[in-house]
Every structure is written in C-alpha cells, then in structure tokens.
Amino acid sequence: MNLVRQKFITDQGMIGLRDWEFAWEILTNSKSHWVYDMEHDVLCVVGLGDHIGAVRFIVKNFYGLNRIYCEEIPKWQEIIGNNMIFYNAKVNDSKHYASSLPRKYKHVD
C-alpha cells in the first residue's frame, strides 16, 4: 500500500510514508479521516473535512488529471465512485467530488 499523508498547513506539502504501523493506526482509529484509492492502492490521510483535497491529489498524481471539461464530470464521477473509499466524510457522493475537480474551459470565439 502506498501511503500519502497530506499536511494542509500553508503549502499543502505532501509527505510520502511507507509505514505499516502508521497505516494500521490510521485505519483502526475511528476518529481519522482518509480517502483510499483501490485502483492504485493509495491511502490519503487528511484533516477534518478535506476529503476533496485528497481526491484532487489522487487524480492529479495517479490518474494524470490536471483539469476537466464540464462534460467529463460523469466519467470522473464513475471513476471516483468505483475506485475510492471515503472514511469519516460528511459527503460520500462521487458526484460531489467529481464536480469539485479543477475545470478547464473551451475557448469560444
């Protein structure tokens, strides 16, 4: 399992960890908050209410996504819904997370 612990202080710096004791502690702690991507075997530990930050981190670093067009939201909703588990999140709806991904817009003349 790849472990990624996100620090959201000022710079959203990421610290990579491969520590099974840490993973076990997080997974068995009912007060922890995390997102697990089953496709890439990645656990993102987040602070209270920042599950969207973990989703953005995972899709950018493991799926190669930078920004999406509005019409791509259903595709990403399916990817998120099929591959990610949210623990202690107020929202478990993949549509919410997909619609919160960074957008790109088509230039219209």
Question: Can you put this structure into words, describing what you see?
Answer:
By secondary structure, the chain is α+β, with helices and mostly antiparallel strands. Helix content is 35%, strand content 19%. The chain has 4 helices and 5 strands. It has helices at residues 20-28, 51-62, 73-83, 94-99, and strands spanning 2-6, 14-17, 34-37, 42-45, 84-87. The chain has a 5-stranded mixed β-sheet with strand order 2-1-4-3-5, sandwiched between helices. A hairpin with a 4-residue loop joins strand 3 and strand 4. The radius of gyration is 14 Å and the shape is elongated.
Write a brief caption for the model.
The protein has helices spanning 20-28, 51-62, 73-83, 94-99, and strands at residues 2-6, 14-17, 34-37, 42-45, 84-87. It has 109 residues and is α+β, with helices and mostly antiparallel strands.
Strand order of the largest sheet: 2-1-4-3-5
Residue stretches low in confidence (pLDDT < 50, at least 5 long) are 5-17
Strand residue percentage: 15-25%
Strand count, sense and barrel status of the largest sheet are: 5 strands, mixed
Mean pLDDT level: 78
Summarize the amount of helix as a percent range.
Answer: 25-40%
Structural class: alpha+beta
- Quaternary state reads single chain
Number of strands: 5
As a whole number of angstroms, the C-alpha radius of gyration is 14 Å
- The DSSP helix count reads 4
Q: Cα distance, first to last residue?
A: 47 Å
Give the topology, please.
Elements: E1 2-6, E2 14-17, H1 20-28, E3 34-37, E4 42-45, H2 51-62, H3 73-83, E5 84-87, H4 94-99
Parallel strand pairs: 1-4
Antiparallel strand pairs: 1-2, 3-4, 3-5
